[in-house]
Amino acid sequence: MKVLYASSEAFPFAMSGGLADVAGSLPKALRRRMVGARVVMPLYSCISDELKAKMVFIKSITVSVAWRRQYCGIFEAKENGITYYLIDNQYYFKRDNIYGYYDDAERFAFFARAVLDIIPHIDFKPDIIHCNDWQTALTPVFLDLFYRGEEPYKNIKTVMTIHNIQYQGLYGSELLGDVLGIPDDRAGVIMYDNCVNFLKGGLQSANRITTVSPTYAREILDPWFSHGLDRILFDLKDKLSGILNGIDYDVYNPETDKNIAANYSAETVELKGKNKEALQREVGLPVRDDVPLIGIVSRLVGHKGFDLVKCVFSEFLQSDVQVVILGSGEYEFESFFHDAAQKHPKKVALRLAFDPSLARKIYAGADIFLMPSKSEPCGLAQMIALRYGTIPLVRKTGGLNDTIFDSGDGIGNGFTFNDYNAHDMLDALYRAVKGYSNKEGWNILVKRAMECDNSWAKSASEYIRLYKEILNNG
Hints:
This protein is an alpha/beta fold. 39% of the residues lie in helices and 19% in strands.
């Protein structure tokens, strides 16, 4: 079985969020189970020179973008045992950022078609192309419209994974002919609510649809979560399933992580305290072992639940606690946390940045990890926190519901609340702070958290079963 994993970003080449982690981890887990898995992604200018130096040029071809023929360079690289194909076109991808440009529709229409056009020119004929989010959603559409009757495309199957349904690739109908090259009589596959909708086209065209947790698969059938796609998803629900993401246990490993002050395991969890002390010193908080340190590593945006935090933060800070926040996002929340850090320098530390090294230090050094999300398709941060023995406090939604279970029953691995309500969150925080004061019980909880298995092993096996089902039954 051969799987070509198409993604707009992948670790370690280019990263803006959880998709890159998945694209860098799942193919590796598949290979360990004897599945031929390779990754295709754009060759962005932001990729480090060190990684670019390892790339090998295969050849150049041209790719159709409606009436245009655009240059496409094919490069190959090997990282962590995985072969990556990187699609070069400086007009589209020599940018400071990965996304956020006026011509993103054209950029990723080019990439989606390049995924198909490179297949005759590489030594890898996939049985399945696994597409991810709207940036690759046109690949199943183009495959059915323009390639299906030709070799080597006749028997290729497709999987479409929704990582976050909020982002769909919505554009005006003028793109149909001028950018996508889709004739009017075939436009129905990609039109939805009078818009071109890239993701809708991929959902309708793919053989199977997956999303990143079982709970999220149920939630996106509800208009409250679906951002308008519930009608089409309800029609396609027989080919929809939720498979929980995992994390790479080689990358996130407190026993070997070079970013942290002291390495430790579930058997040497007492060494975790050295990381707390180092973190407190680095961010300028008083070094205290007797106070619970709450960590936040997140984009500071509304749907991550920071309106709840804002509502009760002053009340919570009346307790003997410390909070360290790493992230950036909406001005409302950046300025709020900045003011809080200024007013409470012994209780609140803020770093408005994307800093992977400091993130690891927070995962290792904090006691409690806060994720009060309004919606969270899967979430990886809570899994990383568990791996490092930092106890997640989450709202039960999406993948948070599938991975974190309240420790009030004596067997859970975190603290949870159900309703999207600031005082429900605050009650859970008070329970966690009280739990921290019981050192013996807390150490048992930390060890239990570290023994949770959120590696890719189980999830990769579920994907393999799905791939086999598609190949056997279509």
